[in-house]
């Protein structure tokens, strides 16, 4: 191999080696070229939680995706993702592969054991089964149709519905909303997105079921069909520029979703984020509506049942390090999708659904680089239905209709 005189001169004084110069001159293989555009990201998510008062069993607020975080210290999840984003070419291709490890990896993975402590007393110990989950894994493909082309996801991807994400760090608050509990979270199928312009985008797709990775529908009528629209306010809107409105629907078989059996479900969602004349303040709102068909609810009657949730959000970014987030919501849980009835329902008949309210206040401050650190206080109140900490209708008490939580959440993001 020939080297120019400058390379030979640098090699003579020991600045470079001829071997390294030879490697630098070689062309990258196709595999090396593909890997050179791949990025690694992820996070380590931990928390410390104090449920103020005593929780002995029965209904408790579902604070996290797995519903398993409780008093004490928690490893929520470890997340690792590889990405090769689409470039600007008309037939671009890429992928996203993301794994999640820990208690939040598989929602609902909880083991409860009664341990005798003597003198007729027992203690309920709730522990999470450590799990590994395919958080997302899909190909990204572009077909040159129209002005911008259609971008496709093929594989396992997040639901098109929702104000909040399964990833803690993407949410304004640490604990989840009731609306999140009503929504499908993961879909396996194909999703196409077409961007009409900077203000309008449409998405539509087909998935195996309304929620899940391994659920498989046998017939086309059992597939889940989904669609959404995203609107963004243009710069000409002044202080309201950048405001977003997202709306969507998923209709199909519920598979083994937490909120139903094998019958059909329809999930509706609408969410908005609006800047205000005060630059540091943004407001948001969301509406979730879940309908369970053919008696697939936890109530056990033969009629269709539904649950809906209304939530309001406020974010105040005081400076680059300090922010305040507030959330308030009302849940009407007619399908018992969030709070299944415990024992004998203390209000008889199908027209006495659980309903609840919650208010969450979160303060975030960046003490360390790359670390999201936040303190959160949450109050939940049950208006009807079984109270918190109730194992049957006989011990449903008014003083247990409230639950209080103080939490610290630390996430290292890379």
Can you describe what's shown?
The chain has a 16-stranded antiparallel β-barrel with strand order 1-2-3-6-7-8-9-10-11-12-13-14-15-16-17-18. Strands 4-5 form a two-stranded antiparallel ribbon. The protein has 414 residues and is mainly β. It is globular and about 60 Å long. The protein contains four helices and 18 strands. It has a domain of 276 residues: Porin, CATH 2.40.160.
Key words describing this protein structure:
18 strands, 414 residues, 48% strand, mainly beta, Porin
Question: Could you give the order of the helices and strands?
Answer: HHHEEEEEEEHEEEEEEEEEEE
CATH architecture of the domain at 138-413: Beta Barrel
Output the structural class: mainly beta
The overall average pLDDT, rounded, is: 78
CATH class of the domain at 138-413: Mainly Beta
What would CATH call the homologous superfamily of the domain at 138-413?
A: Porin
Helix content: under 10%
Protein topology:
Elements: H1 5-12, H2 18-25, H3 30-36, E1 39-52, E2 72-84, E3 93-101, E4 110-118, E5 121-128, E6 132-143, E7 150-158, H4 178-182, E8 186-195, E9 200-207, E10 224-232, E11 244-253, E12 264-275, E13 281-292, E14 305-317, E15 322-333, E16 354-365, E17 371-384, E18 402-413
Antiparallel strand pairs: 1-2, 1-18, 2-3, 3-6, 4-5, 6-7, 7-8, 8-9, 9-10, 10-11, 11-12, 12-13, 13-14, 14-15, 15-16, 16-17, 17-18
Question: Could you provide a short overview of the structure?
Answer:
By secondary structure, the protein is mostly beta strands. Helices cover 7% and strands 48% of the residues.
